[in-house]
Design brief:
The structure is a homotetramer of 232-residue chains. Chain A is α+β, with helices and mostly antiparallel strands and 232 residues long. Chain A has one domain: 3-Layer(aba) Sandwich (L-fuculose-1-phosphate Aldolase). Helices cover 40% and strands 13% of the residues of chain A. The first copy, chain A, is globular, with a radius of gyration of 17 Å. The model of chain A has no long low-confidence stretch (mean pLDDT 95). Chains A, B, C, D: It catalyses: L-ribulose 5-phosphate = D-xylulose 5-phosphate. Chains A, B, C, D: Its EC number is 5.1.3.4.
Chain lengths: 232, 232, 232, 232
Amino acid sequence: MLEEMKKRVYEANMDLPRYNLVKFTWGNVSEIDREKGLFVIKPSGVDYDKLKPEDMVVVDLEGNVVEGKYKPSSDTPTHVELYKAFEKIGGIVHTHSTWATSFAQAGKDIICYGTTHADSIYGTIPCSRNLTKEEIESAYELNTGKVIIETFKDRDYVATPAVLCKNHGSFAWGENAKKAVYNAVVLEEVAKMAVLTKIINNEVEEAPKSIQDKHYNRKHGKNAYYGNKVEV
Amino acid sequence: MLEEMKKRVYEANMDLPRYNLVKFTWGNVSEIDREKGLFVIKPSGVDYDKLKPEDMVVVDLEGNVVEGKYKPSSDTPTHVELYKAFEKIGGIVHTHSTWATSFAQAGKDIICYGTTHADSIYGTIPCSRNLTKEEIESAYELNTGKVIIETFKDRDYVATPAVLCKNHGSFAWGENAKKAVYNAVVLEEVAKMAVLTKIINNEVEEAPKSIQDKHYNRKHGKNAYYGNKVEV
Amino acid sequence: MLEEMKKRVYEANMDLPRYNLVKFTWGNVSEIDREKGLFVIKPSGVDYDKLKPEDMVVVDLEGNVVEGKYKPSSDTPTHVELYKAFEKIGGIVHTHSTWATSFAQAGKDIICYGTTHADSIYGTIPCSRNLTKEEIESAYELNTGKVIIETFKDRDYVATPAVLCKNHGSFAWGENAKKAVYNAVVLEEVAKMAVLTKIINNEVEEAPKSIQDKHYNRKHGKNAYYGNKVEV
Amino acid sequence: MLEEMKKRVYEANMDLPRYNLVKFTWGNVSEIDREKGLFVIKPSGVDYDKLKPEDMVVVDLEGNVVEGKYKPSSDTPTHVELYKAFEKIGGIVHTHSTWATSFAQAGKDIICYGTTHADSIYGTIPCSRNLTKEEIESAYELNTGKVIIETFKDRDYVATPAVLCKNHGSFAWGENAKKAVYNAVVLEEVAKMAVLTKIINNEVEEAPKSIQDKHYNRKHGKNAYYGNKVEV
């Protein structure tokens, strides 16, 4: 069932330690088949060096396991909420990558200071509000998803495919699992650069809107002219 | 004697350079057999690239070498004190990992700013007091153990399995050698994140108690629901 | 056509991830044949792990593709402008390397604080002005080149072979592609050291002119005495 | 001639990129045969990936090349001065390692904040004064040596085997080439920790003398009890 997708999701999960985004099992990637209404996600708490494509778990949009010998990631209810609300996305990744997580712990948005950010993520990467005690104690992972969705109620989740979860970590997404991981790498790198930029110049302001627009649009949308027709 | 444990302790010691927690011989891991009252520890000052499982040293709870061609780690008396006082632990690791050691040198506790910390270590990671001149000059390594124990007199050493030794380095522990090393990796990562978090937001406060409790409890205790029944 | 140069440019491009100057496809290197008036450059947006020497694109000094199955790097018009204005250079590299890019985002020059910098790059590494909205919207990459040239109107581009592009990234150059990458490595390292130097001593001033001159001149010019006659 | 020493010096030079202390050719190691009054040093400006044991250059204590097809390191006169003044040392290393060099650029000593430092280097690691314009322009590398010696006129160069050269880089030394590199690794690590320690606690003070003495003496001198009789 969804064997090709399992391989892709497996590879995307293995990219997390490759790109130095996770230690141990501290991350998970999923990808959805919109027609079937099913997504494939990493099992919970299995070491990366033991993980195999066939260990991936198939889950439906109510969070039920449809196939798989393992329990799915404990963050599965967050993935469910995001897939239901963000209908144009095809893949989701959660990590505790060092610099992005430090922004999440600090409770600060990541301002766009340059084109490395603007090339892939449009505008400020928001940090969500804290969950309330009730939200945490009732259905924590589901409510994590709801608070992310709330954070994007006046934002374009396609143009800004990443969020910081207060005191926790980050989620990023994209048209498929691989692109979601790509965005998580961008997120971590621009988080690091944002810290360094502020250290170098404490008075620094957001990059001018015109250069943000230029770089985002030369890679995205109908007038994009960056890249060749080879796979991302 | 204790051949399987020697292999495990050897592997756990080799994990220290793998996880970038030590340079040269600046660390040591041990594991205890509670029934026999014996523990296995790395020899003192032997290069990691020359270390073999059979080089591990067997020591009793009075610090006597029971088997082994080498002297045990010079920190052996600290391990003895900790095994005697912390009866529920099965493995201990000592490192000079960069970020945790910087907290130890700064004489500051590591506050819990997020779930990366709360997932594995409950609450603040304490920094011990300085040893007195007398404690240093009489039985330094033994007194290092005693001061750690004093630091935990009103703390739960199972829930908070790590400590910073003032001006020195860190000790972490767990149910076995491997889990102790896991906790040392967590310690180093949350130390790094804590520095970055404060740089990003100098006014940052401890994460809310509710999210700390949630993350710690979803991985520990009788209501834990994280992970699958595969080895950690 | 230019097969040897394609191999060199390919190798120089592959050095970017090797020296940790780029992630994904975020960089490009070119080298020029001054007699033929043609340069070889990386194709746009092709993954480094799929790149082959024969994928390199040959471009003339009006920016026309002379040979190649792929589109050249989207930054090609910047390379064209620099080759036309800086007649003594033979290779150009563009990256978003972390520390140099953070200076570019901060809009700050990199002061020469020591001999690591002075050995390879004479004096301050300038940060260009922002492009105007009009410059961005009309011919962005060409105007990026023009603004770099403007930044060097009172500077010696041979002695100072690097520039920071405001809110963007960096360009470095040299007598060939390999030397351009060498200078990009120096740029990234001295950017990192400059941040750390200021953290250690916020009052620090530029290194004395005499030591800057000494180190630059012992490696460059007719009285150079550093190195052996083996290839750089 | 001195074939075994050439191999050791070659290996010690290759350790510089292995321990991430240098980029390109920015470092050099030498070792001396005190009976013969000759030392072996890396050739100048030869890439590490092309270096071979037989490329090492043999030099006498007046700085004359006794054997070798290449010019010796341009820093050879500094090595000569140090070997002549510091009669108990057997190996010297020069690097531009990132964190130590940042202290040199900042013109600040490295205070001893903990046992990682005290285990190998006794007390403060001094930063030398600037060379005068005359010292730079006449015999720069020789005067670099003289200024280091001046920096140690009231210090014990055996107990404190490292120095920061203002606006430049560092030298470290030891009983042989390998031990000199070991001390250079320690220097870089304690430089990094010292920066982080100050960031964590801006009021931090030097570690108590008693713990510095304890750690230094448990590894050095006639009452040392650290380590086993296997090679360092």
